[in-house]
Known about the structure:
The chain has 1 helix and 6 strands, in the order αββββββ. It has 74 residues and is mainly β. The protein has a single domain, classed as SH3 type barrels. A 3-stranded antiparallel beta sheet has the order 2-1-6, with helices on one face. It has a 3-stranded antiparallel beta sheet with strand order 3-4-5, with helices on one face. A hairpin with a 5-residue loop joins β4 and β5. The longest helix has 8 residues, at 4-11. The model has no long low-confidence stretch (mean pLDDT 90).
Amino acid sequence: MMRKENVDAFALQRPLQPFEIRLVDGQRFRVRNIEQFIVGRYHLAVMNSKGVIVTLSLGLIATIRPLLPRRRRA
């Protein structure tokens, strides 16, 4: 189970380092801008790739990891 402190470690970085949230069911949410998410005590609201805001229970988060910089094509 993910704790709020684990999420805050990514959410409070300035400048924001893009990160990916992976849920226990395999869903993934990529956060690239500070405007895409908000962290509460027990839940996280995040905007998905279609612009829809999804509310997630912190207990359903399996992993959070930094996103690697995008590669530029030659």
